[in-house]
Amino acid sequence: MRSPAPSRTSWTPTAQCCGAEPAADPVEPVPSALRDRLLATVAAERGHFRYESGHHGDLWLDLDRLLIDAGRTRELGVELAKEVRGCRPEIVCGPLTGGAFIAQVVAAELGAGFAFAERVVTGDAVAYRLPDALRGPVRGRRVLLVDDAVNAGSALLSTWQDILSCGAQPAGSACLLALGEAAARIAAATGAPLYHLLALERRLWPPDRCPLCASGTPLGAGQSR
Asked: What confidence tens digit (pLDDT) does each residue in 198-219 have?
């Protein structure tokens, strides 16, 4: 059971599509009611948290709650599929665990193939890698990379590095939640667009320059990618 965050504040979410190039087809705005349900589901908290990348930040999301209700997971995946339809991927890939579940729904909606990347831990290092059986099928194909949320971007970046090493072509990146600017920077580096349902502002620091550590604010129990 996680410890409570030291403090909580409120903020205004935004939904948008941004990246290196626009989608080929126009998309309808994400319904505000759906965005509100998404935000409520992940129980966003302000406080002091350590992310998978090693960075410290002031926003934590309970991403596991997204997967408890399979109907809600499908609803969000279907909505994301509407956003990304214009990039016309041949394969939709997601990092395990949450990203792969969302990616599978998006792939089914678009009639595309599906692939996933496994989390590989070596000492303190975390990487994402496609299983051997999936590396050949993505070669030369247009791949859309989907995650549930992108924070510091470690899962998105590592998965893209592995997908590109397989010889795939980037069609775009997509996520339900984009925190800060990391997702946009990574997507721009691939030369393909970024799509998301909801964007949230957060602050992010290397651990040795974290002002919350300097002020003695205790770390919460949550982690995010």
From this structure: 888 888 889 999 999 999 999 8
In CATH, the architecture of 17-21+30-214 is 3-Layer(aba) Sandwich (3.40)
Alpha helices, H only, the chain: 32-41, 65-68, 70-84, 98-110, 132-138, 154-165, 182-190, 211-214
Radius of gyration, alpha carbons of the chain: 17
**How do residues 107-159 score in pLDDT, each as one tens digit?**
999 999 999 999 999 988 889 999 999 999 999 999 999 999 998 888 999 99
For the entire predicted model, the pTM comes to 0.77
Q: How would you list the strands of the sheet with 45-50, edge to edge?
A: 45-50, 56-60, 204-205
Residues pairing with 91 in the sheet: 113, 143
Q: What is the Cα–Cα distance from 29 to 71, expressed in whole angstroms?
A: 21
> What are the structural domain ranges in the chain?
17-21+30-214
